[in-house]
Fold these 2 entries.
Entry 1:
Amino acid sequence: MSASPKEDLHTQGRHSIAVVSRRTGISQLVLRAWERRYHAVVPSRTETGRRLYSDHDLEKLSLLQMLTNADHRIGDIANLSVEELRGLVAESGAQTVAAASRSTDGVRDPAGLLKEALAAVQNFDDRGLAAVLDRALLNLSKPLLRREFLTPLLEGIGERWSDGRLRISHEHMATAIVGAFLTALNARYQVLPGAPLVAVATPSGQLHELGALLASSHAFEAGWDVLYLGPSLPAEDIVTAARARGVRAIMLSIVFPTGDPGVAAQLRELRKLAGPDLPIIVGGQAVPSYRGTLVEIGALMVGEAEELSGILASI
């Protein structure tokens, strides 16, 4: 039996990704990540490859945005039906409505702040970028700041650098400003007495440390204390520091380069020196290119930043 005209309209792809991003408050980078990693929706495509979203997609994404703003994990809810999502929203009640309002209210819109930040990077506007970061800190909750603004910002800078839209000088300027912001943000966390300690670094050859700083923020929010060791450290130095402080885990960020035999050798050396029982957590965009080595050393791999809380809780 053919669908009714109303049903055809509801399921027909007719909204661009820009329209969906504006109406839901979800950045385009996050939308693509939800599609790629979780298959939250599957938009149709034009002949030129442009995404087109249906009314049904738009409603589902709006519900997912409400629920993630109310601290539901996207990995837990992405494949629920619209009816199930409506039920969760009803159960969440006022908390969800309030969170959704925060995310779409003027300066509290992460997508708008993200657009401003990326424009500041493109224009070498260091003061403008710092000002956007400060406004984001003032107007977004820390989970929303990390999930909907900082993570997409780092991904956006990385994508633009890799495809040539940004020069190395753009990336270095952004790294200096965002790195200082994250360092100051991490210094504000209150650590409870007796909190477990995790050492955070990047291995030798991995010079990009923003992912490590962001992972540190996530660890603080999860109730851990952080021994931050910085970028491009040899395995021996990481383990020496970890043993001196009695850490419960080592966490590494690996972003670029991908598939480097030297980095793979450092990962194996880290496991050898740390012993078989100390958990090694590894995240970052380059993780897939080192998957074989990471499986070999028994590392805990973080595919999505929001998975980190569950991994830390399991240790």
Entry 2:
Amino acid sequence: MGIGKAGLKKSGEPDILVILLPQSCNASFLFTSNHFKSASVLYSEKVLAETDRIRAMVINSGNANCGVGQEGIMHAEMMAREVAKHLDIDHKEVLVFSTGVIGKPLPIEDVLKGITSACKILEPLDLKRASQVISTTDRFPKYDFVKKGKLEVFGFAKGAGMIHPNMATMLSFVFTNADIDSLTLTELHKEITEKTFNSITVDACTSTNDSFGLISLGVLKEDMQNIRQAIGEVSLNLAKKIVEDGEGATKIIKVIVKNASLSIKAKAIAEKVATSNLVKTAIFGKDPNWGRIVAAAGSTPFPIDQFKMKVYIGNHLVYDGKAHPKATEGAKKYLEENKEIEIIIDLREGKENWIYYSSDLTYDYVRINSEYTT
């Protein structure tokens, strides 16, 4: 990897990251479902429409390259060509990613100089440093590494606000030394994303720049179940770090919906509870207000049986067709003493389960986002 500066961050910290892969690699990328996409997303989608193999990536932080007209796409291509020129590779195998403030044109000459500088000195991938370079409002770097025998899976990410499927204002890149063919990689990527980056929320706001890449370095033949497990573990760890770093967050909220009749129903209810501002503020205030939980659970198109279902905060049964005031007292103490909070909703109607991660909603979230561009 190579690191450069283009002056995009007010702090003056490095804001350009170039990653050169050892060879052209099979890759699968998923992008935001927002129809107002960053020019860098549009450019990378165009590249991937013609190939499923990549050789390099360039990422800038501090400017989203979004909402700036057609010149944004032209600037993204210029970034790709600059990387290709210095690394002597095909620009059609270079992807471009951006993150930061929307609506400000990239100072492209400064960005190209930053890329030139980054390409001059390439070092082995440092996950922590890579995460720091691409960060914006992040309070801490997000990276993970799993090794099982000879199998290796590792990755880094950024994200703290505008976090919601599909996917979140996040960039995440996961690599494995396993040799995975393109079709299998794409299917595996979609499967894992649903249970990880598509099952987290901070503020129910979807961004213009969301990108999650899974890259096979093609070195090792390995059992697919082992690969799936390792990639899932790294992806979930990165996703949870994003929730933990939710702008102003003090709590991680783990919403578990159990024993639903349909998987889609379990996810919909978990998402509804996880995104409820009333639930999120109650958790911030350490208030075991289970009424907000059941109200959110009952507000999806899917019916629930309020006399059959059970609701737990931690291991405290606060509702099972009726309230349990004594359990509520224990639940309050649980909220006061723990950073990761479990909310369990047992529908008692089937066998499908879903887990959704969220963060609490705090005063600091309002402060950070009320001052973001000024």
